[in-house]
Amino acid sequence: MRLWVICLQALLFIGLLIAIGQSGLFDTIMGRNVRLGDPLFEDYQRGSIPFIDVDGRDVFVAQSHPDNPLILSGFPAYASKLFRLPTDSRPLSGTYNIAFATDAVPDAEGALRISINGVKRADVVLNQGRFKRRAKIELTPAELASGQLEVKLALVGRGPMAECTPNEALAAVVTILPESGLHLKLDKAPSTTRDRLALWGDLIPVKWDEDDKVADLATLLAAARLSEKGYGIYFGESGYAAQALTDIDKGAAIRPGRTQSLRYPVSLVSAIENGGARRFDRETTWRYRYDVGQLPNGELPSALDLRLLLGPIAETRTALFVTLNDHLLFTRTLTDEDQRFSHSIALPTADHLDRNQLEITLTAHEREEMRCGARRLIAAEMLPETILRGGGERLVPAIVQLRGQMRPSALAFGTQKPGTTIEVLTGDIAGALARVRPAGRQWLVHFPDDRREGVMVEPFARGASAARAAVALLVTVHRPVPVPPPATPATTPLRATAPAP
């Protein structure tokens, strides 16, 4: 591995530690090591991709991140995208353009349904086999003046019949292509910070310069401040550097989206893909995701109050399943009396992770398995009264001091006596750990198998799993009384320090 790659990976570690300082990464749940999913900082080696093309007053906003394709599979399937519109530069006209690739089995009948701000705007019929399709929807004056566009995509239809029973588990797959997105014509070129952030989708391109490590550190710190406000960060060659990011930070409001702190009760319909009625004939699933770091004071939800409106379900075998992180919490076979379903379901502490996914699935079949003829459609809607209730166990951070001191506003780079020291270890990490002098409270941070995802935090130990990593962080929270500094690690360390509390 080239040296500059190791250095950048080390800086990425520091950025992750700073940016997620209040996300609950350093919490422990029932004595287990804490794991984190995808990092906030994207892979810097891929380079920046133009999420927005700006040519004076004509702008384009991509539908999805080029590295994370949007795929809908099976009937029915749902996805959503929230586009924020600029306000200082007024949209005069615009179109929602979508390009997608389909792969549908013979005899499958389906369409891609497009709704904007709750209004159905188009149904694009799927062809059997593999095809690429396009559609363009002219935006109305009301939509252009709305401030944001909630675009919902639904893959609806039916699979082929086999021995008089449907077989549509993967009867069709739709992949949204990178050229999909929003085209706008503005009255003037976007120039303000809030317009740029809106058009970027709150995903800020950050510049790396592999030949200037000092500049990279300053850039990283500025990016971390924006990340703390809730903005996504993407590293590459054509992004913004330290001073430009600092200027953006001055005009960037705290974003209530990506890292929104939740308040109980939490409505599952707040996820836009969960709102509205659905029609299905086999299966449909509502999903809600939440991070422990979003919960008020680390308080886990104690229960799901589920409220559904169903019908008609007579002469069907309809069942309900509720899972949390793939653990089954509740099942029930529904009857005609359940057309307005209301039930409270406990959410065990032991089933929670740092990042959680709650799934509510309905399945419906004809009572007569071999009955041929018209398909019976089931209508279902998740009601706004479906909520997460608080009152669960409160998670107490294992190292509160470290979480507080890792806030970007508290960090400084220099030689003053630190309250917290971050040392980047590379090379012979096992040998470096053997030479570390214990001081204060010490933790090791690393990516298992150097995957750059699934960050692991573990207490310092000579034989810790971090000893096998290519790059690791040694984080020392010093005691209030002076203590000798840690020994020099295997390679010359990059050091970030924070003033003592």
Please provide a brief summary of the model.
The protein is mainly beta. It has helices at 3-19, 141-144, 193-200, 213-228, 242-251, 400-405, 429-434, and strands spanning 34-35, 52-55, 58-62, 70-73, 77-84, 91-104, 109-116, 119-125, 129-138, 148-158, 161-162, 165-166, 172-176, 181-186, 203-207, 232-236, 266-267, 277-280, 283-291, 303-311, 316-324, 327-334, 340-346, 355-366, 378-382, 387-389, 418-426, 441-446, 456-459, 471-477, 495-499. α1 packs parallel to α4.
Word description of this protein:
- With 501 residues, the protein is mainly beta.
- 13% of the residues lie in helices and 39% in strands.
- The strands form 7 sheets. Strands 2, 3, 4, 6, 9, 13 and 14 form a 7-stranded antiparallel beta sheet that branches.
- Helix 1 runs parallel beside helix 4 (213-228) and helix 4 runs parallel beside helix 5 (242-251).
- The longest helix has 17 residues, at 3-19.
- The chain is globular.
- Mean pLDDT is 75; it is low at 1-5, 19-49, 163-168, 370-374, 397-403, 405-417 and 481-501.
Termini Cα gap: 38 Å
Work out the helicity level: 10-25%
Strand content: 35-45%
> What value does the Rg take, in angstroms?
26 Å
Shape: globular
Tell me, rounded to a whole number, the average pLDDT: 75
State the helix count: 7
- SSE class: mainly beta
Q: Main sheet, how many strands, which sense, barrel?
A: 7 strands, antiparallel
Q: Write down how many β-strands occur, each being a DSSP E stretch of 2 or more residues.
A: 31
Query: Would you identify the regions where 5 or more consecutive residues have pLDDT less than 50?
Result: 1-5, 19-49, 163-168, 370-374, 397-403, 405-417, 481-501
